[in-house]
Amino acid sequence: MNVLLVYAHPEPRSLTGSLKNYAVRRLMQNGHMVQVSDLYAMRWKTTLDSDDNTAYRPGTRFDPSADSMQAFQTGTQSADIVAEQDKLRWADAVILQFPLWWFTMPAILKGWVERVYACGFGYGVGEHSDTHWGDRYGEGTLTGKRAMLMVTAGGWESHYAPRGINGPIDDVLFPIQHGVLYYPGFDVLPPHVVYRAHKTDAAKFDRICHELGQRLDRLFDTAPIPFRRQNAGDYLIPELTLRPEIAADQSGYGIHAAPNRPED
Amino acid sequence: MNVLLVYAHPEPRSLTGSLKNYAVRRLMQNGHMVQVSDLYAMRWKTTLDSDDNTAYRPGTRFDPSADSMQAFQTGTQSADIVAEQDKLRWADAVILQFPLWWFTMPAILKGWVERVYACGFGYGVGEHSDTHWGDRYGEGTLTGKRAMLMVTAGGWESHYAPRGINGPIDDVLFPIQHGVLYYPGFDVLPPHVVYRAHKTDAAKFDRICHELGQRLDRLFDTAPIPFRRQNAGDYLIPELTLRPEIAADQSGYGIHAAPNRPED
């Protein structure tokens, strides 16, 4: 199968960099084709702006969505964006690998999402009607592909526990797993998170690699997080609130995954 | 008082840009001094890398935290970082204004946080002991200052309701309000959020300005969100989980604010 690893760390000799190298080797040993988008090494343009549409006319009003849609539809996107979209189309699975900086991905990776997820590609897909609010949250361009986060965090695991001060890790990652990956159609696997990343000796590194290896070996047969599909009946449209009878009287991120739902 | 507005939108004629202009005028009419960091206009360097430490020696291993700490302590930070830190020291209140892109701030603003919040300034402050886990979450360099988010979102308010598909807006903004603003000591005010931002006619714009004006007029006497201080007894140290008897049997972001707690 084809695996795209999008990697965001400035130092190749970091733990994050070492785990990237390990992951690439393991995936190739398992017979997969692997491409790596090493954003720092590529000197990825982080900031979304009017230069992303090569047909933008200076002096006109720049609209991030409308310009993105026009560029996507008319073939005037900048070449670096097109290349990443092609990699996404090629991939059967995508891994986003990054250190958790200020409780989310580094800016360089956020800029990858903003620029590569063009309007018409990553969002703004499909029809809006009384029963269908765009192809998103379970439907979209990237349907049928799998995605997984590989995260290194400085804090302790307990700091990200259900009652930990940083918030539960599932909540911290929800805007990425649900909002960035499930939104355009990916099946999202449980994340692989390494805590206290800066306190890693040789024995811990071996243990991390072993655990990561197990996850990568099962990349294509691990059950995804059972997020609820937007247009499959669980939500009122256009309010997009969960129907009152489902997870009644509950709220928050947790209600958007269905416990024990069989895979469709 | 002194107000710093950090603003992140690529188009001055956008709704976000118009609200920025309105806010600056209103704050000045109220007698405040105002500085604006217009990140796109400044062509802010978004990506954190070894160039941020002017004393970095090429070929050596770059450590984002250690290099940042060294540069901060020895005066070798790049000039753009120093200038923003000086603005933060000058400010009595800081407003972060941005469009909600993929459920968080734009990459250019995330890069501002990553680079300006140097180790020793935004984190890595204070001693670690059995009763005090660094000056953070209610203590730190920016203690005594207020902060507020001004956010424009494309989605509907119901999409960000407690049972909305995007997640509750308080949860969406928690990693910024708690993790980026409360962390180094800011008192964080409730956010000002505009929904369906791309559907704004003249009447709606007037209404938004009126509501925003009210919020800005009360910038210095609005009660902050009562987040719990890390080192004031509510958390076990070093686990940093909320003590079992507080908000017993509850979990998630919500437990980190104390309902009806009097302001200290």
Automatic annotation (TrEMBL), chains A, B:
InterPro entries: Flavodoxin_fold (IPR003680), Flavoprotein-like_sf (IPR029039), NAD(P)H_dehydrogenase_qn (IPR051545). Keywords: Oxidoreductase. One of its GO terms (molecular function) is NAD(P)H dehydrogenase (quinone) activity. Pfam families: Flavodoxin_2. Gene3D superfamilies: 3.40.50.360. It comes from the Bacteria. SUPFAM superfamilies: Flavoproteins (SSF52218). The keyword Cytoplasm does not apply. GO terms for cellular component: cytosol. Residues 1-208 form the Flavodoxin-like fold domain. The keyword rRNA-binding does not apply. Belongs to the NAD(P)H dehydrogenase (quinone) family. This is NAD(P)H dehydrogenase (Quinone).
